[in-house]
Amino acid sequence: MKVIEISSLTKYYGKSKGIENVNLEVNEGDIFGFIGPNGAGKSTTIRTLMNIIFPTSGSAKIFGMDVVKNSKEIRKNIGYVPSEVYYYDYMTSIEFLEYSASFHNLDAAAKINDLSEKLDLNLEKKISDLSHGNKKKVSIIQAIIHEPKLLILDEPTGGLDPLIQSVFFDILREENEKGTTIFFSSHVLSDVQKLCNRVAIIKDGSIIKTTHISELIEDNFKNIYLELKNVETADFSLKIDGIINKKINGKTATLLYNGDVNLLLSELNKLDLQNLRIEDPSLEEIFMHYYK
Question: How many other C-beta atoms lie within 10 A of the C-beta of residue 100?
Fold first, then answer.
C-alpha cells in the first residue's frame, strides 16, 4: 500500500521556486529518509503534504486521499514534528500534551508519562521556559501519543543531545514495528543512515535519486586510498572511467570511484604502490557526489 503518493508536485512563491515536479512514493511500513541541505525544498514538500501551504500544480495523496480535499480526515492519522516549534507559551508541557490528546478523545496519560521519562522532559515546566531541545521533545511526544499511522518528521533531531537522539531513534523503531510509517526529513546524513531503509535526495527543489539506503551505499562506490613508494616519480594517472573525485597530496591520493572493481585493480597494478586501502564511503560522501 502507498501511504504517500506525490505526483508532479510544484510550489512557487511568486517567481521563486520552492519545489518543482516532485514525484515520490512511500510504502506502508517504510522508514523513509528525505535528505538535502537547508533550502533544498524539504520543508516546502512537507508543508504541502500537511496542507499548510497549497501547491501551485501537481497533487499529493496520503492514505489514498487528496491532501487538499481530505486534509481533515488525513490529519486524524498523522503525527507531525515541524522543524520550528511554536506552542502556547503560557501552558505547561503536560497541559499542552493533554490538550493535544483531547482532540483525539484519548486518555494518553500513560503514554505521555512513558515518553517524557524516556526523553527526560520535565512536564511541569511552562513552554516559555523550555529550551529549543525540550520544545522539540514536547513536539515529538505530541506527534506520537495518538499512535498515528504516519509520522512526518521535519528535522526532528534539531536541539536534541546525542543521548536523547539515540533514545528518540529507539522510540521511532518501536513505533515502526507497531505499524507506523515514518517520513524522516533531515540534512543530518548520519541520522538518515542510522534509521532509514529508503531515501530520496532532493536538490534545488527536485528529486535527483530515490533508492534503498543499502543500495545507495553499496552501488559500486568505493573510497580508494593510495600511497606510492617514491614521491619523485609519483604519477596517479589512471586510464579508467568511474573516478569521480581525486585528491592528490605528494605521494598519496584519495579517490571516490564508481565502476568495475576489476578494471580498477588492473589499473592500480601498474602503479608502484606502498599502501592501498579500499573502503565503502559514508552516505555523506555519496550524497556530496550527487550534489556536485
Answer: 19
pLDDT number for residue 145: 93
- Written as nine digits, the cell of 181 is 510509517
What is the pLDDT, as a whole number, of residue 291? 63
pLDDT, tens only, 193-228? 889 999 999 988 999 889 888 777 666 678 888 888
Distance CA 11, CA 169 (A): 31
Looking at residue 221, what DSSP letter applies? E
Q: How many residues does the chain have?
A: 292
133 vs 69: CA distance, rounded Å: 34
CB atoms inside a 10 Å sphere around CB 272: 11
Q: Which domains does the chain have, with CATH numbers?
A: 2-216 (3.40.50.300), 220-291 (3.30.70.250)
The one-letter amino acid code at 100 reads S
What are the φ/ψ torsions at residue 115 (nearest 5 degrees)? -70, -40
All cell numbers assigned to 93 = 508541557
Q: What share of the chain is helix, strand, coil (3-state, %, to 5)?
A: 35, 35, 35
